Amino acid sequence: MNPFSKKNMELVLRPLGRSNPITVQVLGICSALAVTVQVKGALVMGASVMAVTAFSSLIISAMRNAIPGRIRIIVQLAVVAAFVILIDQLLKAYMFDTWRNLSVFIGLIITNCIIMGRIEAFALGNTPWKSFLDGLGSGLGYALILLTVAVVREFFGTGTLFGFEPLKHFMTDTLGYVPNGFMILPPMALIILGIIVWVQRSMDKSLQEKEQDGW
Predict the structure, then answer these.
(1) If the chain, 215 residues long, is cut into consecutive pieces of 10 residues, what is the mean pLDDT of each piece?
(2) Domain total of the chain
């Protein structure tokens, strides 16, 4: 069987759009607000969640027939925590400044609803390869939204991208744009995220909730 069949690749691609964990399933919102002030932080956080989700799903799927149902949540948390600690130590060793800015939020990946949700909903009932692809796709969908929000906030809030100062000088000196400090405040992340949700649901009518009688 082709490991990269159309059906398998759909597991990776669907979370980028119609089943995005943030804009459709409304999971992982807190970190989307906290780490999107700069693109670099959002990129590292997105990559970290993607790696933890993919490899945790892989391990849990491989162990699924040996895990007693009564303690499955404990086992899942232990596996997720192991990968989070590994990433935390790697960032501390090789990207110390980024780790210092994200340290609290990296630790909170353990309780991320996206990871536990994919493990419970998919990894426990599917093969390791499919579970890995599903986790990879969910992590990519999460990272995509984080990066989108971070690009808008950093670009319009500070006039930079990845802290690139010459871009700021071009924006202010050549174009006359004055960075808007409101863009880097937490409420702006919610506003940008809301705009993304609105655009997505306007383009895909099937994602819109049906109106209920009496509303």
Answers:
(1) 82 88 84 84 94 96 91 94 95 91 86 89 92 95 93 85 72 72 86 91 78 55
(2) 1
